[in-house]
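Quick one before lunch.
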Amino acid sequence: MPRRLRLLFAALALAALLWLLFAAAERALALAQRFLALPSWLQWTLGGALLAFAALGLAVLWWLLRPRPRRRPVPAPDRGSLEQRLDRLRERGADTASLHAELGELDRRRGSARVYVALFGEISTGKSSLIRALAPHAHVSSDARGGTTREVGHYDGTLPDGRALVLADVPGSREAGGEAHETLAREEALRAHAVVYLCAGDLTRGQAEELRWLADFGKPLLLALNKADQWNADEREQLLGRLRRQARDSAAAVVAISAGGSERFQRRLADGRTEQVERQRAPALEPLLSALARLTAPGAAALEPLREHAVLAGLHQRTGAMEAQARAAEAERIVRSYARRAVVGAMAAVAPGSDLLIQGALATGLVRALAGLYEVPVSDVQIDDFVRQARLTLRTGSSIVLAIAGNALKAFPGLGTLGGGVLHAFAYALIFDSMGRALAASLAERKALDQHDAGERMRRLLDDGDDGRLRQLASLTLEAWRERERPTD
Ligand SMILES: Nc1nc2c(ncn2[C@@H]2O[C@H](COP(=O)(O)OP(=O)(O)OP(=O)(O)O)[C@@H](O)[C@H]2O)c(=O)[nH]1
Ligand SMILES: [Mg+2]
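Model of the magnesium ion complex:
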């Protein structure tokens, strides 16, 4: 378009804009005049409505534009406190060998001063093929079938500037039934200074979650779109655009590569026969190599604190899971021992009434023991309240408990032969088991004595005629009955 014509259009547009502004100002003035002419009660009502409308508009604007809270990184404990926790677990008989080995590996790698880069991604995204391209002398198997790599392998690789890297090939993730392999892969990713996450197309929801999982540990990340040879230039750019948006907060760079891999095709020979040929595709890795060189430029020592954070954070989670397991086992032991004492108490009662009454001292002991185990401070008043509430629950639920106990007597013949009183003894086993389990579960989840929650759980457990649980309680009652002469712990 000629310059003069463009200037003419610009001037016309400017004039139209000015005209619109004047018209809007005139309209506003006219409205203001009409507003001032209104009776004052209408002015206030209208003014109030306008203000409320403006406030609402501002609130919506703020909601749309507010800064998004950043995801919180996974916390890492300091090394000393982690080691203490591990020692405590070991004293309680837990097998902490793999956690100690992880700490050993942390130190070993720090001592080696080498830069570790792990490849990570779903099965068949080309991790092993990429290792083969980066470390040509390595013997790595890759195959079109998913789940080719079953364990972690380390290979020496070099960057174009001559710097050495240790590359880790790991099993592919998200394979049906491959949880153990995936755990291996995740642990190796946490141990590395940096991770290359491979994908072969748009990220699925699961892949996006995996990428975020790595980023939450503070892992320096590259997202590599492999098998880029499968798309034309336009498709590739569009895919890269989408991946960049998805990995905006997690990856330092998103690149498209071709790890190579192998291709099979049929070749027709001169005599008319055909034969299957397998040939290596030429890799194209330049963007990945530059991004890797940039990401690892600070060197092993400078990248070490981030790596240490990720390893300790991973260990914190694994230790936490083991502690929860050990506590649950201890809680079960405590509940069993109190249920047994309750059975013995019931047997000692001269004439059991038809009402079930919780044995107060035992119940208090059980609450205190469980609260102590879960390190939840509880006052005497709280304990009394809880026991009182449990009594109320029982008052309304006695008939259900007795009915379940009656059925158990019929279902487990051993019990029936014991004679009178056993119905009550079994009922008490059921009551203390329900109360203990309910409280333990509530304390573990809420980290506090939440009467309402624990009471609700207890009610559900009292109604629960689960065969396996009743069988366990039946054998506990039988044992206690047979050993009634012996003092209990
Ligand atoms: N078209 C194309 N295919 C590739 C490329 N890289 C790898 N492949 C093919 O993808 C398939 C899987 O490759 P692998 O290297 O075994 O993949 P992996 O991620 O190690 O797989 P797992 O070990 O099972 O997790 C093989 O058939 C490769 O030939 C590539 O750049 N382009
Ligand atoms: Mg592999």
